């Protein structure tokens, strides 16, 4: 059974860079049938898609965040990572990693989420 | 790139049916049959309940059903149960390969 687990700091200072990693257990990571996504949710608000990466390393980002975001993949460790720079309080949110399939683009498996606060 | 539009809240009594709408544009909901719906209970990650407009993940309750007309997709929950009280989000594939979410709808079971 595939599971996703986010890891990273819970508190980051304004203007700094956030780095989060998602570790994937199960054999679907090396399958070409999936995209690997980052999604965030501020407290009490809706979901915002941040971006995705394919195993080949090709990426696609939310245009509103594109200038500050980078997603990378490490297939040897079954991990993919998010980097978000120039942080402000507006980036405070629960960050989820999620798998989507290439034929329907539905997010079928989610991590439990990790809370990130941006504060001095 | 704007979020999809959902009503902020809906409510219904046990046993009744409710419908939640999700309105986009021809660049997303109207242009692709890649609309999915998610249920989220407080403090939990979302779970997929409908994909490709009207398909269920295996093992999921068929009390949930989806449809689409033009630029608006809909989620219908029949036979409301107390455990259906949650937030519901729609999502759609859009031009340039990006993904959009709706703002979310809170369902109250009276």
Written description of the protein model:
- The complex is a heterodimer of chains A (120) and B (110).
- Chain A has 120 residues and is mostly beta strands.
- Chain A is built from no helices and 11 strands.
- Chain A is globular, with a radius of gyration of 14 Å.
- Chain B is built from no helices and 9 strands.
- In chain B, the strands form 2 sheets. In chain B, strands 1, 3, 4, 7, 8 and 9 form a 6-stranded mixed sheet that branches. In chain B, strands 2-6-5 form a 3-stranded antiparallel sheet, with no helix packed on it.
- In chain B, a hairpin with a 2-residue loop joins strand 5 (64-69) and strand 6 (72-77).
- The interface between A and B is medium-sized, with 24 and 25 residues.
Short description:
With 120 residues, chain A is mainly β. In chain A, 0% of the residues lie in helices and 52% in strands.
Share of helix among residues of chain A?
A: under 10%
Chain-averaged pLDDT of chain A:
95
- Element order, helices and strands of chain A? EEEEEEEEEEE
State Rg of chain A. 14 Å
CA distance, first residue to last residue of chain A:
39 Å
Q: Spell out the helices and strands of chain B N to C.
A: EEEEEEEEE
Chain pair with largest interface: A-B, 24 and 25 residues
SS summary, helix count of chain A: 0
